[in-house]
């Protein structure tokens, strides 16, 4: 059976998106905190923290709704800080 990996970026946290209307064990959502999101332009540290906290809260919400989620925190050993390398 076909498996689907859906990447959700930090500016795409929309619980009302059609993706989240139904749960499927064949769909995995991937969210990653990446260093490149903190330094491509100068950001205040509070903005970066709020950005990642929003991603974590969103992950908790869709997980509780029954969706399969992979979430990699900035300092997770599995987080290679590179989407192309990881997936």
How would you describe the overall organization of this protein?
By secondary structure, this protein is α/β, with parallel strands linked by helices. It has one domain: 3-Layer(aba) Sandwich (Rossmann fold). Helix content is 32%, strand content 17%. The relative contact order is 0.24. The mean pLDDT is 87.
- Helix percentage: 25-40%
> What name does the CATH topology carry?
Rossmann fold
Question: Number of helix segments?
Answer: 3
CATH homologous superfamily descriptor: HUPs
Total number of strands: 3
What class would the helix/strand composition place it in? Answer: alpha/beta
Taken from the alpha-carbon principal axes, the silhouette is: globular
Second rung of CATH, namely the architecture: 3-Layer(aba) Sandwich
CATH class: Alpha Beta
Q: What order do the helices and strands come in, and which of them pair?
A:
Blueprint (H helix, E strand, L loop, with lengths): L3 E4 L19 E6 L3 H4 L5 H20 L3 E5 L10 H4 L1
Parallel strand pairs: 1-2, 2-3
Write a concise synopsis of the structure shown.
By secondary structure, this protein is α/β, with parallel strands linked by helices. It has helices spanning 36-39, 45-64, 83-86; strands at residues 4-7, 27-32, 68-72.
Main features:
single chain, 87 residues, alpha/beta, Rossmann fold, three-stranded parallel sheet, 3 helices
